[in-house]
Amino acid sequence: MIPAFALLIGVILGLVLDPTVPLWLQPYLPIAVVAALDAVFGGVRAWLDGLFDAKVFVVSFVSNVLVAALIVFLGDKLGVGGQLSTAVVVVLGIRIFGNAAAIRRHVFRA
Amino acid sequence: MPEQPGQPEEPGERAARPADSEAAAPQQPTSNRRAGMLIGLLCLLLGFALVVQVRSTTDASGLGAARQEDLVSILDDLSAREDRLRQDIATQEELRDRLVSGDDQSDTALAEALLREQQLAILAGTVAAEGPGIELTVSDPGAEVGPEVLLNAIQELRAAGAEAMQVGDVRIGVSSAVTGRAGLLVIDGIELTAPYTIRAIGDPQTLEIALNIPGGVVNTVSRAGGEATIEQQDAVVVSALRPVDDPEYARPAEDEED
Predict the structure, then answer these.
(1) B240-248: Cβ within 8 A, 24+ apart
(2) Is the confidence metric ipTM above 0.90 for this complex?
């Protein structure tokens, strides 16, 4: 419940404050968001499985975001930033789909 | 969609590993609450970042999310387009300047031509003229004033700067001829009888002096038994007109133009 509320508050804050993304953060923010979404879906799935662990969630969330940012950073340095970003998004997307499927099975029993 | 819940390298699902949850289970509510707050904070951050990212993507029409090389190529495109547009502007401005100055030139030329036409028309006697001048009346009771007297008067007036003249109802032009005999003068084929009235436009004083010189027109007329009276006027109207003959043979010489 608290995480859902927090998410809502974050959305509202973003809408109200409407900040501009700093230039250095612009390449990383979308990938970081996708990575965080992946962690959240994983957490929801674990929670539905009754196996949720706050510490694991926090660590996975932070590490997901950091690794995603690192990959983008490395890709930019290597000159393949665009392709690596795409690869990260694809991988994370697949994982989100997988988690979403597990959640669906839990919720709808189908 | 196949899925392997136990895949160890998936951080989101590491929560599903019993070892982790067992390790976390003995933790006390204080740390639990702290973890909850941390999770809440992370979720808040996620929502915030999500909205910010969505906003920035829609705001900057995709430019914010574009990569450096894309931006460079977009910039190149824009620069090339700007160059083209600037060239267009330069061309159009040049054209405009040319048109404007051409307009000015033709306006000036037209005004000059009109002015010149008026001057020439006055000289040729095709339009009525008005201005300061004199009216010379020559009476000839003895019919002694011959054509040479009148011709002399015309020439004196012309030499004194008369710009337009008429004798009786005949405008004096470049081809005017005074013929006939004393008592019955003919100018340009039109017979005139005394008294003769000559109206001339020019500087009145100069004209009068020219006529009054010793041995001049006034002297000659009085010697012939007539009387010449000169009246200076502020507004002499020379209203007689001369027909314009189109030159049959003469044409403007090519190299004389402009």
Answers:
(1) B240/B125, B240/B128, B240/B166, B240/B169, B240/B170, B240/B171, B241/B125, B241/B126, B241/B127, B241/B128, B241/B171, B242/B124, B242/B125, B242/B126, B242/B171, B242/B173, B242/B188, B244/B124, B244/B126
(2) no
**pLDDT at residue A107 is higher than 60:** yes
Instruction: Tell me the pLDDT tens digit for each residue of A64-105.
Output: 899 988 888 888 888 887 788 888 889 999 999 999 998 888
- Residue numbers of A between 10 and 39 with CB closer than 8 Å to B: 10-11, 13-15, 18-21, 26-27, 29-30, 32-33, 36-39
In a domain, A2, yes or no: no
Alpha-carbon gap, residue B87 to B122, rounded angstroms: 52
Range of the domain at A48: 24-108
3-state secondary structure of A69: helix
A83 at B interface, C-beta within 8 A: no
Instruction: Give the residue-averaged pLDDT of B149-168.
Output: 87
The arrangement of strands across the sheet holding B227-238 comes to B170-171, B164-167, B196-201, B129-139, B227-238
Measure B24 CA to nearest chain A CA, in Å.
Answer: 6
Shortest CA gap A82–chain B (Å): 7
Q: Tell me if A79 is assigned to some domain.
A: yes
H helix runs in chain A, sequence order: 2-17, 28-49, 54-78, 81-108
Whether residue A14 is contained in a domain is answered as no
Determine, for residues A2 and B13 on separate chains, whether the beta-carbon distance falls below 8 Å: no
